[in-house]
C-alpha cells in the first residue's frame, strides 16, 4: 500500500463515519419531532398483549365500605 492509497483509504473512512454520524443525528432529530405527536409503539411489552392480562377492576363504594369496616 503506497501513500496515495493510504490517504484515499483514510479520507474515505473518515467521510464514511461522518456520514454515519449525520444519518444517526437525523434519525434522532426525526424521532424527537415525531415523539411529540405519535403514540409509542409497544410490541413485546406486557401491556401490548391485551388478551393475556386480565382487565383492570376498579373498586366501587360498597367494596370500600366493606374494607373499612374490617
Architecture blueprint of SSEs:
Elements: H1 3-35, H2 61-69
Describe this structure in words.
The chain is an all-alpha fold and 70 residues long. The protein has one domain. It is 60% helix and 0% strand. It has 2 helices and no strands. It has helices spanning 3-35, 61-69. The longest helix is centred in the first third of the chain and has 33 residues, at 3-35. It is rod-shaped and about 90 Å long. The mean pLDDT is 82.
Task: Write a brief caption for the model.
60% of the residues lie in helices and 0% in strands. With 70 residues, the chain is mainly α.
The whole-number mean of residue pLDDT values reads 82
Count of extended strands: 0
Q: Percent of residues in beta strands? A: under 5%
Number of domains: 1
Gross morphology? rod-shaped
**Major sheet details:** none
| Rg over alpha carbons | 28 Å
Task: Supply the key terms.
70 residues, mainly alpha, 2 helices, 60% helix, 0% strand, rod-shaped
Amino acid at each position: 500500500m503506497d501513500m496515495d492509497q493510504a490517504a484515499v483509504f483514510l479520507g474515505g473512512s473518515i467521510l464514511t463515519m461522518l456520514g454515519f454520524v449525520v444519518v444517526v443525528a437525523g434519525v434522532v432529530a426525526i424521532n424527537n419531532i415525531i415523539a411529540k405527536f405519535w403514540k409509542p409503539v409497544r410490541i413485546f411489552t406486557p401491556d401490548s398483549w391485551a388478551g393475556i392480562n386480565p382487565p383492570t377492576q376498579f373498586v366501587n363504594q360498597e367494596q370500600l365500605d366493606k374494607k373499612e369496616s374490617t
